[in-house]
Specification:
269 residues; seven-stranded mixed sheet; 6 helices; binds biotin
């Protein structure tokens, strides 16, 4: 495997983490982006279950080329996966990840809902974001990097004013900090379990639980995809995790990804 150098590696707390999926954990104080490092590692031959974690990111990457603000106190991690599945089923991985995150947060007595496609929210505000990046050649999945950012012990004031109103953190919701290592251990246990369902082709179980955890279905939404803006009722997801949207004229649209706005929640003034 090609050697890749990074700055300031902190102690590896993964030694007592007996979780099947996690094979190797690279823990850093500061990086540009854990997803970038994980992609480089995957391209250099790193195995499935290699995890990159950082306490802070300088250029955390969000969906649609946005910046993911990554101050101290948050969870920033990327997991390399090499699932032996058809490319069609790979689109269920965002659901697997969002479920793992929402279940983990739920174990801290918070009601974490999933906003399609894979934002996790508490009290209507975003607490976690997920960015999947993959390399696919023909029909073969070479790797998938699952990037997860969770606002754990973050003071909302450490986020920029433009995202503060729609963001929250575990610290804010619970009123006290959460043990970082314990939280990670809980998360990896959840991810390991739900990813094992995916590996075992138990797709319907994943979809069924996603439907319980989402608050998007049944809502009138506006979706900005990379090519168009669509409006209608989000009434279901299909077997590959695509959102099914019924437009006002009755036309059904299948959408893989996009930015979703709940129209019912908009202030009428
Ligand atoms: C989103 O826009 O909602 C997705 C945000 C994903 C952020 C995480 S933080 C860890 C990983 N590394 C990155 O650079 N991005 C993802």
């Amino acid at each position: 495997m090609k050697e890749i150098k990074f700055v300031k590696k902190t102690t590896d707390f993964s030694k007592n983490l007996h979780i099947d999926l996690v094979k190797k954990m690279l823990v850093f104080d500061e990086v540009d982006s854990t997803n970038i490092i994980a992609k480089e590692l995957a391209q250099a031959g790193a195995e499935e279950g290699t995890v990159v974690i950082a306490r802070k990111q300088h250029h955390g990457r969000g969906r649609f080329d946005r910046i993911w603000q990554s101050p101290d106190g948050g969870v920033y991690l990327s997991i390399i996966l090499q699932p032996k599945k058809s490319t069609e089923k790979i689109s269920l991985l965002p659901l697997v990840t969002a479920l793992s995150v929402s279940r983990t947060i739920g174990l801290y007595s918070l009601d974490a809902t999933i906003k399609w496609p894979n934002d996790v929210q508490v009290n209507g505000k975003k607490i976690a974001g997920i960015l999947l990046e993959s390399e696919i050649r023909g029909h073969e999945v070479i790797y998938v990097v699952v990037g997860i950012g969770i606002n754990l012990n973050i003071d909302r004031k450490d986020l920029s004013p433009d995202i503060q109103p729609q963001s929250t953190s575990m610290l804010y919701e619970l009123g006290s900090p959460v043990d970082y290592h314990e939280f990670l251990r809980t998360f990896f246990m959840q991810f390991d379990w739900i990813y094992s369902l995916f590996v075992d082709n138990q797709f319907q179980r994943i979809i069924d639980e996603w439907k319980i955890k989402t608050d998007t279905l049944g809502k009138t939404i506006c979706v900005q995809t990379s090519t168009e803006t669509l409006q209608g009722i989000a009434f279901d997801i299909d077997q590959s995790g695509f959102l099914l949207l019924r437009k006002e004229n009755g036309e059904i649209k299948k959408i893989l990804s996009g930015d979703c706005l709940y129209l019912n929640d908009l202030d009428p003034t």
